Amino acid sequence: MSESYPPAISRGSTVSITQQIYRGMREAILSGSLAPGARLSSWQDLASQLGVSRGTVKRAYDLLKDEQLIITRGATGTWVTSSPPSLQTDQVETNTQQPGMFYDFRARPQYFQGGIPAQDEFPLKAWFNAWRKAMTADLSRPMIQPDPRGLYALRQEIAGYLTLARGLSCHADRVFISSGFSSGLFIVLSAMGFHGQKVFVEDPGFPRTRQALRELAITPVPVPVDPFGICVSPNMMNGEAKLAIVTPGQQSPLGMPLAPDRRMDLLNWARQTDAWIIEDDYAGELQLTGRAIPALAGDDHDGRVFHVGSFSKTINPSLRMGYLVVPEHLIGRFSKFVAHLTPAGSLIAQQALQYFIAGGHYLRHLRRMKTLYLARKTLLVSTLREELPPSVRCEFEGGLSVRLFFPAGTDDVAIAERAQLAGFGALPISPWYQGPNPQSGLLLSITNVTERSVAARCRALLRIIQGGI
Ligand SMILES: Cc1ncc(COP(=O)(O)O)c(C=O)c1O
């Protein structure tokens, strides 16, 4: 073990012993003297080694855990994470074209970072067992050409899940396994031949979707969003675009569901103008209060809606797995397209996911996450409210984030960049807007907010905000 471990402590210092242990270990990890993946003493052992109370060491470990510098696996032990940042790479590179939109993929997750589930509450044992079973099945299977549409048993599980949990009753033949929302989007745009055309998108709306469209020479046409969701306006009836991409479950980034009359207006628009809808169901059942609003595709009786789901927010974005549900009359066209261009990925991963869902673990996990995320959001909102300056408005209804809105004209991108350098993954809101006069603010994801550090984190972030508004 390295020379700087265990950390030296000084009882006469004005810095608390917890802070001394935390800072010493943090430095040892960031400088590389505690190597990635190195096993650490348990906090109980380190406490007796240093002659301090167990609670003192546990608090230091908790701080390191919050920063994703160490991981603990119950009673089995504590390790340095396998890819901690070095002091040199601690600063996050930002993309100059879309500042704040992409993270440095080598960096650890940051506090308030969006798009990642809770790090500390995943059912690891059930997940591991599903993978072990999948590996065993794979070893006894002859090498085969897998079905490019995806493992049929997984497609059946997903169809069952959608029927039960999302009000979208569909046959497994309509389900295609993708590598997440982005690839589902690509498949629809390409198989339906939208290249070079115009497409309606929500304003504000997910910037990655607009970027994806531009990659295919598609022009995103913004349609305003009000408190009821996308405003299905007479303008949309002029046939300018034959596709709309929407987030009806929880509008991204504002969080509200699409109001019932708007759902009907949108479906009517598609029928009357011979157009199509892509439903981005990125958060699926993770609607935190009440029963989740059913999928729009469940109300589509004309075969006009493509339902695109993802396991990125519910399991892990690094799984790179999602699904696409196509209208029945298009099964043949999509089967041919994916067979030749975008076959489903790893069969072992698909099989593991199928075992996980079939064992009831997915639904159980989602139910637990709904409760956990609601508690985390409540905690964050109540903490923020104590310190929020009057010029900052806090919105928290719907979605997996809390939105902070700044006075008009505030440079939220600059604030987000400064926040990133201080370890915050909060995203600026203005890039979500396409039209003139974007709102200014920050999106704070609630998934990894924890009781022990939320107050200090909020204070630090609010200091950065106050320096920028
Ligand atoms: C609006 C929206 N759509 C889709 C996704 C998921 O994308 P993918 O499945 O490609 O990871 C996210 C994740 O952050 C999202 O916020």
TrEMBL record:
GO terms for molecular function: DNA binding; DNA-binding transcription factor activity; pyridoxal phosphate binding; transaminase activity. Transmembrane segments: none annotated. Gene3D superfamilies: Type I PLP-dependent aspartate aminotransferase-like (Major domain) (3.40.640.10), Winged helix-like DNA-binding domain superfamily/Winged helix DNA-binding domain (1.10.10.10). The keyword DNA-binding applies. The keyword Repressor does not apply. Residues 15-83 form the HTH gntR-type domain. Keywords: Aminotransferase, DNA-binding, Pyridoxal phosphate, Transcription, Transcription regulation, Transferase. Pfam families: Aminotran_1_2 (PF00155), GntR (PF00392). It comes from the Bacteria. PROSITE patterns: HTH_GNTR. PANTHER family: HTH-TYPE TRANSCRIPTIONAL REGULATORY PROTEIN GABR (PTHR46577:SF1). In the C-terminal section; belongs to the class-I pyridoxal-phosphate-dependent aminotransferase family. This is GntR family transcriptional regulator / MocR family aminotransferase. It comes from Rhizobium hainanense.
